[in-house]
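Entry for the shared binder. Reason: the reviewer on the internal report wants the predicted structure included alongside the sequence.
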Amino acid sequence: MVDLEGQYQKIKSEIDNSIFEVLNKTDFINGEKVQFFADQLAGYLGCNHVVTCANGTDAIQITLMALDIPRGSEVIVPSFCYVAAAEAVALLGLVPVFADVDENTFNVDANSVEPLITEKTRAIIAVHLFGQSCDMLPLLKLAQKYNLFVIEDNAQSIGATYTLPDESKKMTGTIGHVGTTSFFPSKNLGCMGDGGAISVNDEQLAKKMKTIANHGQPTKYMHDEIGINSRLDTLQAAVLSVKLIYLNNYINKRQINASLYDKYFSKLDIIETPYRFEKSTHVFHQYTLRIKNGKRDLLKEYLHKLSIPSMVYYPLPLHKQNAYKQFYKNQNLDISERLSTEVISLPMHTELDEEQIGFISQKIIDFLAP
């Protein structure tokens, strides 16, 4: 699904030099490159502060802790997405309330969110899925109307932009109150292990998040908050500081590859190619098709036999997962359930070439064509 070795080889000398700087300094924990990368990423996103941490799930947990959301409060999350948001909510004694998603973008639908808001609701987590932004304006209006926080899970869409009504553009992760992201190796901006970060404009909130991520310590051995141990390794920051320079190039290559896939699939009605939301750019963390004739699983088996990678993100919506059934209150989540039976993601990365895309696409067409 990704070619991390090919990507590394192209920037090997820069990555190696950055890592060796850390090895020579031996500042492996909270080293110089951690703050360097945080400042670099804040500049890229156009936000005031970036707080680094150990992974994207921790980023969501630290955010919820810093916002002082009382136990038992409700947090609205989409059912069709990765588990991290609901997991962090539940671990803190909060209640995940599952919303349905838009049929075209696969992102949380504000029309599904509003009926779920109660006097216990404190936040909405907007997961920017597969590479493009949720429609943030309706969510922000709901937040203002009901006095809620909006947290953006930007793990799959870093580098995407959202167009506001005045035609100005904002990076995803900087539109709501707080943004979180992951640097898992397969992400568009990925490290060589685990890593995460939080983007925020409020200085006091950023300080609190940094304290929580460091055992609740603003200074060593002084614990002002109940915190956790969640650090971005200096070695990972060294990798990320190099890769961030290339992120826009990576995004451009993914967009080119997506357009190539589109051309192959354009004449087959039973394949629905990724929708481009007019208010957002699409950075194609995944290239996800909908197979409309009920043969998604058969297609996946066929590709596996040909040694063509594919993945189903996600085969079971969160409200049907054993761990989260307890939170499901019979909301209408038909779109999330239907998408889970139709979607399939194809290889999408910076090292794909036109010949490979043509080969993959033609095999899919051969299998699905009438």
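Summary line for the report: Residues 103 and 335 are 6 Å apart (CA to CA).
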